[in-house]
Amino acid sequence: MNKLVFIALFFFLFQPFAFAQYEPNYDESKVPEFKLPDPLKTFSGKKIRNAKQWEKKRRPELLNFFTQNVYGEVPGELNISSVEVVEQSNNALNGKASRKQVELTFKKDNRSLSYTILMYLPINVEKAPVFLGYNFYGNHTIANDVNILISEAWSRDNPSFGIIHNQLTEQSRGVRTNRWALDEIIGAGYGLAVIYYGEIDPDKDDMSDGVHPFFYVDDQQQPADNEWGSISAWTWGLSRAMDYFQKDADVDASKVIVFGHSRLGKTSLWAGATDTRFAGVISNDSGCGGAALSKRRFGETVWRINRSFPHWFCTNFKNYSKNEEALPVDQHQLIALIAPRPVYVASAEEDLWADPKGEFLSAYYASPVYKLYGKEGIVQKEMPGVNRPIQNTVAYHIRTGKHDVTDFDWEQYIKWADKFVK
Ligand code: GTR
């Protein structure tokens, strides 16, 4: 047999075994043994005893590790060049809200990038606390409102939403109203601000578009190994939205809660960790690289996420693919970086890919850091029953159903925000 044919045949026959080894695990009894790094012990082994030591020693070294090895560093400063209110009305949602569409523009050398924040604010509140979140398919998908402008940015195709040739269209207006409980948010006295994430960085493995190239020198094609992936870029966008809120008299910038689902839940956690101006953080079904503990290797793993979405994290994170045991941190420490500000981690029962138990344990193991500040986190190690939220400064629920954002989720977020942020 010709040698090449033999090699091809060999790989063909043994391929199922090779892949079986990396099939996602959904069996609790097959979760590997692992030791979680202690948030209250420094890398050099010193015990952290109070909030001051945490802030001086441990928090900075953890933040630095996540920056250099997981999400990637933002290579420089890029501030808002101009703000334009492109549309507004004081009569939205049957007179209950005002609506504002604000375009932020960034310029550097001969590059320019703009994105639009769509805001609904309750009419009877002078300075509103606000939920801020990214959406997956354009601002016009979040409400059945003909006045919402349609973004021209690249989008992943989704024929069921009428998105083909990577262009958002009229056909998808209002298709995601189910994910945003807008009436309830406004009724409870909060504003909602949303941004289409593709305007900051299109969600594809291409580092030549979005905000990344603003910092390239000479003929650089991609960020350095320790520099930002897409999650960090999206996080940068949220922080610039925060810059804007600080100047908007209609918003209470000291009460902005950053929210995100799934990959955008990973993003909201990283935003909360890196930007202490966010008063609260919500991670909805954020899974691997979000709230879920990586070392459990349950559902999606570091290898799998780096393979499917090579652009989300920094290149250095690939060192931990199939190598979670070498990670000197885990995601409970990402949550701890948000302390003492309120954080809500939510899971869905059928969303095993995101590892609900790993998400819960992260919230639990982050709690000792909250305790340093006299704040109550998650005190019981047993997961609560389905649809039975635990709401402290650290909050958690697992609801029935699949990977999604539902009215049940929002009801809990509003109740919790009323108590811990408003
Ligand atoms: C999945 C990915 C998850 C999650 C999800 C989403 O395909 O594996 O990590 O982020 O996408 O964002 O919808």
From TrEMBL:
Which molecular-function annotation in GO is an example for this chain? carboxylic ester hydrolase activity
Per the database record, which ranges form the 4-O-methyl-glucuronoyl methylesterase-like domain? Answer: 192-374
Signal peptide from the UniProt entry: 1-20
Q: Which UniProt keywords apply?
A: Hydrolase, Serine esterase, Signal
Q: Which Pfam families match?
A: GCE_fung (PF22244)
Q: Does the record's keyword annotation contain Hydrolase?
A: yes
Task: Spell out the SUPFAM superfamilies in the cross-references.
Answer: alpha/beta-Hydrolases
What is the name of this protein? 4-O-methyl-glucuronoyl methylesterase-like domain-containing protein
